[in-house]
């Protein structure tokens, strides 16, 4: 290299370094803007404070109501539509998360559980609450569930079955381990409730036949919905208690699908899921609480989740349950479930034991 050229390079070297540094800073600024601008816009649109967004992204700090490091949520499922009983809750699941130790309790509450204060089944609480005032359904459901379990219920969320199907389809379906083969000849076809079936006295056209093989099954939204709603199979799979277990299975399968595929790292997919959640789920959470709860749920350890179902036991296996089915005449001909001890105290002790102790061995 000529000596003159070399001297010129040395002369302008500080300026070259400065120029390179400026270009790098501009590139970094553009990268940060592209990364955080969508987050900023989303925060503004949904009234999320920038402080929460910063604390959540930088430190994983959650914004949730809690009691003794636990946040409790009631998940409700309704049929929706215009048919009679469309706002009766078909599914009632209590989900308690320990955000410190990353364990959880999932409890299915039977829809036929009799509530003395309502003088009706628990699945009618949402209906009565909405009758009294708009958005009163979630308030009454939370207080009713608290009456049963003696635990604070911080939040409630309700989803209809069309939203349930969409959620599963968006993630590409779920994998569920069907414990035993079963068939249901009387699964209702939506929109056929009032079809006279051409005079067929058995109304066969109103129903379709379902069949599920045992083993690991991949399910789209439609199949998963049928799996959790089926209630006319022969044997154990035909009762509500088995159906409650299947509902819990699907919730955990959805969590596993999102985690194991890594789609929670995909910004576009996360945005799509959040928008779908906003469209299909009614809840009393604000957006910072929704995001916080979703993270706490995803952080659950697979081995740290206890799945509980309140049932009547199994006579063939000589297993007792916390509930009994009293004579229908005592409840104006209605088929209901009541605590075997006459009140909810034993059930409350059972739930408290499982919440406080992951190795709780309390049985009916």
Automatic annotation (TrEMBL):
Keywords: Membrane, Transmembrane, Transmembrane helix. Belongs to the LytR/CpsA/Psr (LCP) family. Pfam families: LytR_cpsA_psr. InterPro entries: LytR/CpsA/Psr_CW_biosynth (IPR050922), LytR_CpsA_psr (IPR004474). Residues 89-258 form the Cell envelope-related transcriptional attenuator domain. This is Cell envelope-related transcriptional attenuator domain-containing protein. The lineage of its organism: Bacteria, Candidatus Gottesmaniibacteriota. It comes from the Bacteria. Gene3D superfamilies: LCP protein (3.40.630.190). The keyword Transport does not apply. It comes from Candidatus Gottesmanbacteria bacterium CG1_02_37_22. The chain crosses the membrane at residues 12-37.
